[in-house]
Amino acid sequence: MGAPGSRFRYQKERKHLDEEAEFYTNRERPPGLKDAFATNKTLTEKKENTRADAQLQMKRINERFDAERSGYLGLKEMDKRLAPQEMGKRQVHDEIQPPAPRIPLPDPTYRTSFDVVDTVQRRNISP
Q: Given a cut of 50, is residue 46 above it in pLDDT?
């Protein structure tokens, strides 16, 4: 992108090139000077395009921020209007209980017949 003051640097460079070109009013400019003019013009145009793009992007960001802010403020205002009516119906987040699990968890003290057989085999107890 370049330094913040590069636009002015290009203007100063262009002024210097114009002063140098005054010596070639009745003659053809040397190729180096022509190239310098072309390079300066290209760099200046790129800098202006970059600057214009940045301004356009800043404008879009500001518009999006304003839209989101107005939406948030509208929701906040709606919440203020509904709050007095809904006070008795609302629950505080601390009072809300978590939902019961859908599948009941097995009782850890419950033993199956497989557990009994396994225990008997491990202890070498005959039935």
A: yes
- 90: pLDDT strictly greater than 90: no
Whole-model pTM: value is 0.47
Q: How far out from the chain centre does Cα 88 lie?
A: 39
φ, ψ of residue 111 to 5 degrees: the values are -120, 140
Place of tokens 């970059």: 50
